[in-house]
Every structure is written in C-alpha cells, then in structure tokens.
Amino acid sequence: MSDVLISRRALLRRGTGTAAGTALGGLAALGSDLRPARAQAQDLRIREAQAFPSVCPYCAVGCDTIVHAIDGKIVNIEGDVRSPINGGNLCPKGAAIYQLHVNPNRSLEVLHRAPGATAWTVMPLEEAMDRVAQLVKETRDETFKGTAADGKILNHTLGIFSLGGATMDNEWNHLHQKLMRGLGVVAIENQARI
Ligand code: SF4
Questions:
Q1: Domains (ranges, CATH) in the chain?
Q2: DSSP state of 149
Q3: Ligand 1 first shell, C-beta below 6 A
C-alpha cells in the first residue's frame, strides 16, 4: 500500500501514544523523523526569551525547571537538563506547569457561595480575606486551650485544620507554617509530597 493510499483508520492504527490521531502523529507513524522540526520550532519559540532556573511546585521530588519569558511573560517551561534530580525530565504533572500560568480556565476572581445558596457570586478579594481572617480569629478564640486538665501546657487549637496545595512554593509554606504554629494550629498538612 502506498503512503498516498493509506486509509485514515490504518494511519491512526500506526500512530502511537498521544501523537496518534494528529497530523504529526500520522507523519511519525509513517516513519518521518520529526525531531529536527520539533527542535527548530522550540528553538524559535524561545530564541528571544530570558531563561530563569526554577523548581516544579508540585511535589517533594523538586524537579528543576527552566522558565522562559519574553517581556515579562512566560512563554515556555521545561525540565532543566543540568539538574541532578530530573536530568531535564518532568512527569506529566510537571510538564503541564506552563498551564498554571497561562490558562484561560484559570479563575482570577474569588467566588463565594453563601450558606444555603445554590449559586456562586463574585466576592472582592479584600472582603474574602477579611472574612477568612474573621473566621480564623473567632474559631481560635473559641477553641484555644492553654493548658490541659492536668496542668500540662498545650497552647493549641484543634478547631482549625490547614491543608496546603501543591502550587504553594517553599517561601509560602515557610510563612504559612509560622502563621499556623503561631496560632496554635497543630493539624497542618500539604498534599505536595510523595
Ligand atoms: S510533580 Fe513531577 S515534575 Fe514536579 S517535582 Fe514532582 S515528579 Fe518532578
């Protein structure tokens, strides 16, 4: 069968992985080596960019990355080949870090659903922060224990639980720990770990 006459179904069958079903996947399946074209496209995309070393924010492996930016805007994030940790590789989650920054689905507003309500409403950030602070203060005041019944010093509250997210970086977590422990919170967790 010639390459011209190959059916679409056969083309898809011969494609592999995520490349299957795309024009590039089809070309790759037909034996074309696309690596030079991909490398050139990548090179063009970052030719004018500044490169900043960084670290993947997602988990405790701490893979190194390079962030490329043009005029202060991120245009690409990839694994740092110089890294002794990941040698330029990123897992699927890390490979999608760019979408943390550039993503039309990312919400840029605070959404609030009042108790009993069925719809979300936009809440100004200042108002949301004040409300969180108010609730934390009230809860801590109500639940803080200085000493146990036997006189043992506790200085803690079991009324607040802190759950961090993977996109919080080291600096944020450092400050967050200080704040939570200062309040007497002992239930502190973060899912950014292996
Ligand atoms: S999430 Fe993936 S890329 Fe990021 S640090 Fe962990 S293993 Fe590395």
A1: 1-32 (no CATH), 46-106 (3.30.200.210), 110-190 (no CATH)
A2: T
A3: 56, 58-59, 61-63, 86, 90-91, 93-94
